[in-house]
Amino acid sequence: MSDATLHSRILIDIEGRIVSGEWPPGYHLPFEIDLAARYGCSRMTMNKVMAQLVRAGLIERRKKSGSFVTQPKAQSAVLDIHDIRDEVQSLKLPYSYSLISRTRRLANEDDVLHLGLAEAADIVDVTCLHFAGAEPFCLEERLINLSTVPEAADFDFEALAPGPFLLAQVPWTAAQHRIQAVSAGKKEAKLLALENKQACLVVERQTWGQGGPVTKVRLTYPGDRHVLTAQFKPGGL
Question: Most buried of 145, 202, 203, 211 (most Cβ within 10 A)?
Fold first, then answer.
């Protein structure tokens, strides 16, 4: 078995243990030397796997203590994965969708990092625009891992957006959200019909399935046209 194949097998196995709850938040992982012995790999290979899990936000390393499964981020626990069509229709506005670009290519170094891949692999890079009535509602920029979603290789995304396509194809087992306010750059301003440097809300989401990383998406909303809401229940931290 090649080092790359062994790396992928170990990564998928540990991810599966974490997202299934077998290794719950706060779980103290065995030390690297013990994991290397368990999986029959070199210490270097195990170190690379652990670094990949840290970048994916699934584990954290604590000096002198070891590695632990991370606690869920607050926004990950309260945000559902919605179809953007439903978001628009909840505003009582007609929804439409436009594909800007779709490219199948080999993942570059940044893609590998963003998707949490063990190595470069074939991906689909999709950019599209969602409309609420006549106004742009959301710019979607998405990477899809063909190793876990091979059906996306031949899908053109002309009529159906990537979000609902993926929800129909691959049940997701874990998701991580990152939310930030940004100023619109030239591309965002042009596509979303904004002034340059106008405030935008960006939601970045990464999802995993039983087979590994599924997709990484960046959703950019005009700041004055979108609100995030969440419901909380008693007993939470």
Answer: 145
Q: Which residues in the chain show pLDDT less than 70?
A: 1-4, 71-80, 224-237
Q: Output the six-digit token pair for 206.
A: 């990464």
pLDDT in tens, 137-151: 999 999 999 999 999
Distances (CA, A) of 124 to 29, 93, 142, 143, 194: 33, 30, 8, 6, 28
Are both 33 and 85 inside the same structural domain? no
Instruction: For residue 234, tell me if it sits in a domain.
Output: no
Does one domain contain both 63 and 104?
no
Quote the pLDDT of residue 76: 35
Domain range for 26 is 3-71
Q: What is the pLDDT of residues 123-134, one digit of tens each?
A: 999 999 999 988
How many folded domains does the chain comprise? 2
pTM over 0.70, yes/no: no
CATH (domain of 169): 3.40.1410.10
Looking at the structure, tell me whether residues 135 and 174 fall in a common domain: yes
To the nearest 5 percent, what fractions of the chain are helix, strand and coil?
35, 30, 35
Annotate 187-203 with b (16+ C-beta within 10 A) or e (fewer): ebbebbebeeeeebbbb
- CA terminus-to-terminus distance, the chain: 45
β-strands 135-145, 212-222 pairing: antiparallel
- Asked if residue 217 is part of any domain, the answer here is yes
- The pLDDT assigned to 163 comes to 92
